[in-house]
Amino acid sequence: MKASIFMGKLVTAFAWLLMLFNLLHPFDGKIAIILNILLGVTAIMHCVQTLLFHTLFSQALPLRAKDYINAFVFGVFALLDYRQQLLQRNADEHRRR
Predict the structure, then answer these.
(1) What is the distance between the alpha carbons of residues 53 and 43, in angstroms, rounded to a whole number?
(2) Pairwise CA distance, residues 34 & 75, whole Å
(3) Pair 33, 8: CB distance under 8 Å
(4) pTM (2 d.p.)
(5) CA atoms within 13 A on the CB side of 10
(6) What's the pLDDT at 61?
(7) Contact between residue 89 and residue 83 where contact means Cβ atoms under 8 Å apart
(8) Alpha carbon 5 to chain centroid distance?
(9) Of 24, 16, 80, 76, which Cα lies nearest the Cα of 50?
(10) What is the DSSP secondary structure assignment for residue 75, as one 8-state letter?
């Protein structure tokens, strides 16, 4: 699972870089318009995922600004990563009992 999350984060980071690069140096043709629309949709979806992240994990884990940035940038892969951390933490607490 960790390898899948890591690969997903790499692909997501590449997509962000590609879309942001397109803002600075637009590609030729309609691909620039498509990437700009995709950037807007991606930003909105990642804002929703960050809100979901706050709702699900703020009471269970101590969260810092870095965690919210991680959730915004990597979206669902960050959510899966924090879910895995929470499950591990609960398993450790259960073993201590």
Answers:
(1) 15
(2) 20
(3) no
(4) 0.84
(5) 6
(6) 83
(7) no
(8) 10
(9) 76
(10) T
d(CA 85, CA 18): 30
pLDDT score for 90: 84
H-state helical runs in 1-97: 2-24, 30-57, 65-74, 76-96
> What tokens does 31 get?
């691909």
Q: Dig out the tokens for 6 from the structure.
A: 């890591």
**b/e for 4-14, b at 16 or more Cβ within 10 A?**
ebeebbeebee
Q: Angle CA(23)–CA(24)–CA(26) in degrees, nearest 5? A: 65
3-state secondary structure at position 40: helix
Rounded-to-integer distance, Cα 95 and Cα 81, Å: 21
| CA-closest candidate to residue 15, choices 74, 69, 66 | 74
What end-to-end distance do the CA atoms of the chain give, in Å? 27
* Model confidence pLDDT, tens digit, residues 64-96: 999 999 999 999 999 998 889 888 888 888 887
For the chain, state the CA radius of gyration. Answer: 17
Structure token pair of residue 37:
């629309």
